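Q: Got a minute? One more chain.
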Amino acid sequence: MSGRAIPCSVMRGGTSKGLFFLATDLPGDRADRDAMLRSLLGSPDPRQIDGLGGAHPLTSKVAVVRRSARPDADVDYLFLQVWPDRTEVSGNQNCGNMLAAVAPFAIEQGLVDPGDPVTAVRIWMENTRSLAVARVRTPGRRVRYDGAARIDGVPGTHAPILIDFQDSAGSTCGSLLPTGNAVDLVEGTPVTCIDNGMPVVCVAAEALGVTGHEGPAELEADTELRARVERLRLAAGRLMNLGDVRDKTVPKVSLLSEPEHGGVIATRTFIPHRVHEAIGVFGAVSVATACRVPGSVAAGLARAGRRSPDGEELDIEHPTGCFAVSMDVTVEGTTVTVRRAALLRTARLLMRGDAFAADFPGAETEARPVGPDAGRATPAAHEGDTE
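A: Always. Here it is, folded:
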């Protein structure tokens, strides 16, 4: 046999989809690991026809999970973006959608002992060096994927996964407002630079000559708009302590406008060159936070959210619906403190088996046995993954 068989799970997390691996099943050398992942997903090729990638950044993702050595975490999670159209594997950002599937994957793989009826999994997010706690339904100590929870951008209903974030403010840029300002003038355009788990440049869509309610395809087809957004992104990246972001996936640029469907604000997000069909988890959290920063671009467009015992519920509109973020933010003078950020996602196991990689260093000499149980941890029992 040519190549190497790697134990792999294909999972949907939130509105993203990707491959999940145990860290122990991947090469320890980064260059070899990245070469293997490109082979597995079929990159670089816009169609990823010779791999398991979905020909779009939202479906060309990888999660690497290991048992954590930290006393405050159960597992470590590394997110990697494999680009369909170029030879690049990036760990510069986090992915909160894929995060939604980390806890069930960890339970399935025996890294975390399931409770009954719910299991709380403490996840150390390596990309941003911050913690999240995900609560998964495990009645009878079995992961359940079926349920009544619905999220926009995903057909049907599934079991809810509740995620609380801890200390995510400034996790990439060093502070919630990396420039120290609620508004900066970048390339002649007022913007708000913010990082609450994802570095985001918030800009009023109207300032760029669009309404902010166009569909992703229409915005992507506007070459002049895309060029202007990229100029903003490059200039803002330097201001946000990210340096030259020409070859980085952050910051994202979110075009903001007044909501049309009862939400707090409407978004169209460049990620960074394609337009998201929905909005990323941390992108939504950062935009929601910006809505509560006095004087920000977002605050000038945002409407009130729903009060709750834990703070405020903010519905962030996106091209395929709304993303609900629960926040507790306090403002004292010019100091903005995020006390809590939480949200609801769903996930589903789609496939588990062996993925085959070739054309990376050592592929021929490091072949492993092939079979349904070759080299993998015994998964925990589960049910409901066909719903």
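A: The CA atoms of residues 294 and 333 lie 9 Å apart.
Q: Perfect, thanks.
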